[in-house]
C-alpha cells in the first residue's frame, strides 16, 4: 500500500481536508490512501504571527496550500519564486539539495513533501539568525 502513514501520539491532532481529528488515549497509526488529501499535523503548524523569518514565511505559504486555504495552481509560480529566493541565501550543498527536493515536490503537486523539505531549513535559518555580525 502506498500513501502517507501518520503515527500519532496520544491526543495528537491532525488537520485532514479541513477537519481537525484528535487521536485517542493510545498511540496509533493511520494510513492515508487518498492521494490528494490535505493533511497537516497541528503540532507542526506555523501560526501567522510566527511566520516572521524568510523560511517560516515560505513554510507558512506552503502550509496554506497544503491545508487547502489557497489555490495550489495560482500559488505554484509565487512559491517557486520564494524557493528560488531562498536558494540565493542557502548556498551550501545540503541546503541546495533540500531546496531542489522542495521544488521537485511542488512541481509534482506533492505539497506535503514540499513542506517537509522546507521545514528542514528551519534549524539552519535559526542558526544563521542567531549569528549577529559585529
Description:
- With 134 residues, this protein is of the alpha+beta class.
- It has two domains: 4-43; 46-130, no CATH class.
- It is built from five helices and five strands; from the N terminus they run βββββααααα.
- The protein has helices at residues 54-66, 72-87, 93-107, 111-119, 122-130; strands at 4-8, 13-16, 19-22, 28-32, 39-41.
- The strands form two sheets. Strands 3-2-5 form a three-stranded antiparallel β-sheet, with no helix packed on it. It has a two-stranded antiparallel sheet with strand order 1-4.
- Helix 1 packs antiparallel against helix 2 (72-87).
- 19% of the residues are buried.
- The model has no long low-confidence stretch (mean pLDDT 90).
Low-pLDDT windows of residues: none
> Whole-number average pLDDT?
90
Look at the helices and sheets and give the structural class.
Answer: alpha+beta
User: Strand fraction band?
Assistant: 15-25%
Put simply, the count of helices is: 5
* Spatial gap, N to C terminus: 54 Å
Question: What would you report as the Rg, rounded to the nearest angstrom?
Answer: 16 Å
What spatial order of strands do you see in the largest sheet? Answer: 3-2-5
Quaternary organisation of the protein chains:
single chain
Percent range of helical residues: 40-55%
Label the overall shape.
Answer: globular
The structural domain count equals 2
| Main β sheet profile | 3 strands, antiparallel
How many β strands by DSSP? 5
The helix-strand sequence is: EEEEEHHHHH
